[in-house]
Amino acid sequence: MSPYDNALAKPQSNVLPAAHRKPTREQAERAVRTLIEWIGEDPDREGLADTPARVVRSYEELFGGYLYDPADILARTFEEVEAYDEIVLLKGVRFESFCEHHMLPIIGTAHVAYFPRDRVVGISKLARVVDAYARRMQIQERLTAQIANAIQDVLDPVGVAVVIESEHHCMSTRGVHKHDVGMVTTRMLGCFKDDAERRREFFQLIGHRG
Ligand SMILES: Nc1nc2c(ncn2[C@@H]2O[C@H](COP(=O)(O)OP(=O)(O)OP(=O)(O)O)[C@@H](O)[C@H]2O)c(=O)[nH]1
Ligand SMILES: [Zn+2]
């Protein structure tokens, strides 16, 4: 059992606790201004005057995943007309996320597969689920597990497989300064966990040796 399983009981585990009061936009902009001052810059010079507002606006986009419930995204499904008992794979879904330790980008690719039981989902919805979880403060292990668990919980397929490969800018642009190092995480559920042949087929489809 992975240490993240408990935190994953609900797909949306890293949302704001109810007791936490969300700061106003003005407070958020003031916080950015404070950081600019802390860096040693003049927040009133022309080039920086609008920066706090820009940063807060960009955060709305970069961390917009909290506004989406993956269960809603996956709610619209289609009954299979012909029984399709093979893997459905969305391969190479690029995403941008932010590590929760340094708030620096995690840039990566997700491969998301499921083995339908009796319903299929519009394929774009798998990419939307990736974004809904990526556009939050994350660690890659949790991101991987959340995507897989949401698909399992909502679609109840025979199995789900998620592989994420990424570069962590907190490792490349600061700290240990290691470039071109990939972090790979996987989450296998159902037939992909229990059936070695199915898992091998999945890894072959994404171009890895299983
Ligand atoms: N497991 C895991 N670690 C991550 C992820 N993103 C960032 N980290 C790591 O989180 C760790 C935080 O370590 P700390 O020692 O608290 O922070 P730090 O002093 O800034 O560490 P360095 O990055 O080694 O300089 C670092 O080792 C990061 O590489 C992630 O998605 N998963
Ligand atoms: Zn980091």
From TrEMBL:
UniProt keywords, alphabetically: GTP-binding, Hydrolase, Metal-binding, Nucleotide-binding, One-carbon metabolism, Zinc
GO molecular function: GTP binding; GTP cyclohydrolase I activity; zinc ion binding
Pathway(s) where this gene product acts: Cofactor biosynthesis; 7,8-dihydroneopterin triphosphate biosynthesis; 7,8-dihydroneopterin triphosphate from GTP: step 1/1
Ligand binding (Zn(2+)): C99, H102, C170
Enzyme class: hydrolase
Region annotation Disordered: where it falls in the sequence: 1-23
GO CC terms: cytoplasm
EC numbers for this chain: 3.5.4.16
UniProt-listed Pfam families: GTP_cyclohydroI
Family, as annotated: Belongs to the GTP cyclohydrolase I family.
Oligomer and partners: Homopolymer. Toroid-shaped homodecamer, composed of two pentamers of five dimers.
NCBIfam families, alphabetized: folE, PRK09347.1-2, PRK09347.1-3
Name listed for the protein in its UniProt record: GTP cyclohydrolase 1
Species per Swiss-Prot/TrEMBL record: Thalassobaculum fulvum
Species classification: Bacteria, Pseudomonadati, Pseudomonadota, Alphaproteobacteria, Rhodospirillales
Gene encoding the protein: folE
